Amino acid sequence: MSKEPSFITKCVHVGNGIDKETGSIRRPITMANCYRLPEDASSINWSDPNQILYTRNTSANQLYLQQRLAALEGGEDCVVLASGVAALAGVFFTFLGSNSHVICSNVSYIAVYRLLNQYLPDKYGVEATLVDTSDVEKIKKAIRPNTKLIHVETPGNPTTKISDIEEISQIAKSIGALFSVDSTFASPYLQHPLELGADLVVHSLTKYINGHGDAMGGAVIGKKEIIDRIKSEAMVNLGGTISPFNAWLIMRGVVTLPLRMKQHSDTALEVAKYLEANPAVKFVAYPGLESHPQHDIAKKQMKMYSGVIAFALKADSEIHNKFINSLELVVPAVSLGHDESLIVYTGPDDERIDFYPEEFRDGYIRFSIGLESAEDIIDDLKQALKKCGF
Ligand SMILES: *Cc1c(COP(=O)(O)O)cnc(C)c1O
């Protein structure tokens, strides 16, 4: 093609090709731990993360998926790992060490909180400051001479808080720190952190990118030189490699990413508006609502607002639990970004409750809107609310 194909075309074609052996127009799943060595193996780099030799170093299906995800984020290269947490840990273990300092969103994925707030400081002497990254002044105040990394999650899990990627990238550049963005909630269809100045984009592929709730994976995308370091240090030598089967499943899932993200976003906005207008509801946090505190930043940096809503009822934990268990269509389960709607209630005993916005502190619901019709989802909410006396 003479011009760069559009995003939706890349989702279908990049990384696919004709199988040389069978002529199949889909590349097969290659489930093998190792590959025939050349007759003269004297010049082989046994730990080359870009050569198919031993599946912990990389596999054919992993390479195809990396190619596709790099193209979707507009990055030079990508590393795919066994889970989103393996990808995040890959970034932290590679770029942080004793006496280095990291600034991170104070409410982020729970494993990020534990890695940066407990394990890395306690075991390896990393210094971490957790701040509300939706406020750039707080980031500026947290800077130290040894700040090596700024890591934000936007939209944040579970608060849906938005951080301004472009502004934070300016701060990171001015101090020579790396800037990584966990863009899992947005997916590459709704937000392009690299274009806005981030150095690294991280995804849990388990969520929207795979989209079907049947495979786990994680990815980091950025400049080749940076990604190669993560491949060597955190994949080959820590071993969180993805299975070729999961890489193949995710490759298949991502084909429909644009269609799914539009549907998730449209339905979530409708459900969020329904909840906001309902007198049983204490608060609703959804970046697409004008009442969201960072709606303007979301509007600036996102195409649509994705499928996760946080809210609470004017009720105690017992009623919240009853509400969740009264739902007939929506499934009570963790995770998000699947085809089916998922819902989970967290009570006020969460270990980070003090970091949450005030309205979350008595307990909140995280609601991942699936691909069912808005009408059916809202009907399900209505009947469950009724059973709870609302
Ligand atoms: C789920 C999630 C992760 C972790 O991904 P896993 O694939 O479960 O390891 C990281 N970040 C965000 C924002 C997530 O929602």
TrEMBL record:
It catalyses: L-homocysteine + H2O = 2-oxobutanoate + hydrogen sulfide + NH4(+) + H(+); L-methionine + H2O = methanethiol + 2-oxobutanoate + NH4(+). GO terms for biological process: transsulfuration. Keywords: Lyase, Pyridoxal phosphate. Pfam families: Cys_Met_Meta_PP (PF01053). One of its GO terms (molecular function) is pyridoxal phosphate binding. CDD domains: CGS_like. It comes from the Bacteria. Its cofactor is pyridoxal 5'-phosphate. Its EC number is 4.4.1.2. The keyword Lyase applies. The modification N6-(pyridoxal phosphate)lysine is found at residue 207. GO terms for cellular component: cytoplasm. Belongs to the trans-sulfuration enzymes family. This is homocysteine desulfhydrase. It comes from Clostridium tyrobutyricum DIVETGP.
